[in-house]
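Entry:
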Amino acid sequence: MVSSAQLPPEIQLAQRLAGNEQVTRDRAVRKLRKYIMARTQRTAGGFSHDELLKVWKGLFYCMWMQDKPLLQEELGRTISQLIHAFQTTEAQHLFLQAFWQTMNREWTGIDRLRLDKFYLLMRMVLSESFKAVKMHGWEERQIEKLLELLMTEILHPNSQAPHGVKSHFIEIFLEELSKVGAEELTADQNLKFIEPFCRIAAQTKDSLVLHSVTRGIFETIVEQAPFAIEDLMKELEAQSEEEEEAGSDGGEASEGGECTQALLSQKRSEEPPAGSIRRAEPEVGQEHGGDDGDGPVLQFDYEAVANKLFELASRQSTPSQNRKRLYKVIRKLQDLAGGIFPEDEMPEEACKRLLEGRRQRKAKRRLPKSRPRHRKVTGEKEDSSPDLNLGIDHALPREQPRGRGRRGAGKRKRQPQKPSGASTGEANIQEPEKKKKRRLENRK
């Protein structure tokens, strides 16, 4: 039996993180953070991949044992922010790799009651990974490294990620990216973020992955186009107002320019230089996973996205199913590049229609089909009622023998013998002829 003092510190922390008492787990999380910062500051220190897998197994069951929703959110935020305790980018990526491998391994054992808390944890970890790239000033190299790690562990055909992890990752990718960098990222940088999804959509043989990428990435870009253009128009209006104010006030403009330059220099000084990592912690009060949708939207060059998709979809190696699906998306993006919105209206009205008008249009499509039928039925009833009253004498002789049999036929034969008001004239005319015939026969 090995004593706890002889065990490695990673295993000791993992055992305490998975403890039954919440006080023990909270202390273990705080000690883990201090241990990570102290160990990664050494030049020869650092964690191996196996050590981080052990740490993440303890963190996984630490989240597993937490039941109350508010405490789950707080614990998920604390765990996700551990990435900022690592001092180098390589250590951060190794920490993220161990997280996604742990989720892939343990996903099938999660019951439906604990599923939401791990969805939340995935969302928070993805958001903090974007913030780590933001601290480097959105460098192209950092973006490529992060995307390569995510695609390898989640969406690559050889990855062991279950469909639940893949679909949720695709669903939250653009949402979390817009929360972190919508105000700073350019259209070219956003295209760099979705390029791996374009390649996967053109090459994958998994229909579920194709549907998730098409719906969660490309169609989301099309649906958010009115919001993106509205944000762009607001920025242009703000710039034009600033230029008008600058042109009207000559002396004040120079002072304003100096102030703006001072603010820009202050912002640049606050940002860390390239290759360094900011040590400050992100704000704890920031909410993750909010579905308000009131924040800024990512800006895209729709023509560039359409050209990139067409380049990949038109290859001979692309499956026909993928090509057909991507060509539909390309047409929509080309329409947006040409100024044609999905609703063929102005952005604000298109936004209202996207949010409110779909049910109304479906109801309007159903009404013209149902109303004429109702009118035709009532019209037929009104028109057919006088015909039934007028033609009842002609219809009965044909229908009665079928329903009543021989009795109806016998009654029909007796009807001409009954005297009626209409046949009295014929009877009076025929009676003298019969009498004449009888008289002639009697004489003979």
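The mean pLDDT is 76.
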